[in-house]
Amino acid sequence: MQSSSLHGGDLDEISRLYGIDKSKIMNFSGNVNPLGLPDSVKRAIAQNVDAATGYPDVEYRALRGAIAQYTGAKAEHITAGNGSTELITGFIKAVMPKKAIIAEPAYSEYLRILSQTGCETVLSPMNEKNDFMPDPDAFDITDDTDLLVICNPNNPTGTYLTAKQIAALARRCKQHGCFIMIDETYVEFADAAEHISAVELTGEYDNIGVIRGTSKFFACPGLRLGYGITGNKAVLDKVVQSRDLWSVNVFAELAGCVMFTDTDFIRKTRGLINTERARIRRELGALDKLKLYNTQSNFFLVKILGGDITAKELFLRLIEKNILIRNADNFPFLDETYFRFCILSPEENDILLDSLKEIFK
After folding, report:
1. Per DSSP, which regions of 205-343 are E strands?
2. Fewest CB within 10 angstroms: 14, 136, 179, 227, which?
3. Does 96 share its domain with 207?
4. Collapsing DSSP states into helix, strand and coil, what is residue 304?
5. Residues 204, 120 share a domain
6. CATH of the domain at 133
7. Are residues 201 and 282 in the same domain?
8. 165-197, pLDDT tens digit by residue?
């Protein structure tokens, strides 16, 4: 594994490799909300430390109720899990596909988990000529296709399908007995006007499963809280059965009951991301040597034009300034010209923008 392609959360390894104090790294690689953990969650945990002496509710009734109110889904269609990764595993094992399609480039865990089940996996490329916007008609779904995996908005491209496109895709998949697993980890960062989320569709189409985590939007990767939504009772029951007993700890359970009602935090996050996303697109879009793709997430995929420098070389130049970006060359269908960075505070964004302008002027 190239050091410049390390996971954004592995700051300890970055610190060790480059001799940088971890606390001084500006992490543009991790895709975590720059506002940090909501104050409401901090207070709730601090005031309920003794909750650790008891067990969580094994059915997570209050948590599922909070998620239902937040998403508009039915509580009986919801399960909680130890981060989105546990639920990705759970849905895959529930479907137990013999053949799956993944829209790529995408999060590597989909392929890793599918490979562990012995599933035949087809990587369906999003076309760079179409600016990596996914094309529903490009998925070669046949009668032997059991599972279609989509990240929406997609990581690392930030591109997306609309709910209307997903509904049409669900109807086509239904004809072939194919289940769609949609990872919506980043959908809360999207402009609501784009109508991206498929949560509402889970009440109408029983071949859709939506997975979300809280690590990115609510800035709590250490709490390990995710949730899955599907109207397919058979699939949901298998997901629940595959989950470890009490896999969501009491503090994650408590946090979930609080964070989803924190409308002030949600509003501030969306305001910050929308404003900075537009500003960054405007400023970097003026540089002839960089191409930005149409993201609806809190990060940008960027292509370096002209061949003067590779993404790995850019990574090394920026890490000298304590700026950590993601060299994206180890994603399928990407190469040494691609890098990704997320939106942080306006002040930190200014530092990155100034550095990129200096390099690519």
Report:
1. 208-213, 226-230, 290-292, 299-304, 323-324, 326-327, 338-342
2. 136
3. yes
4. strand
5. yes
6. 3.40.640.10
7. no
8. 999 999 999 999 999 999 999 999 999 989 999
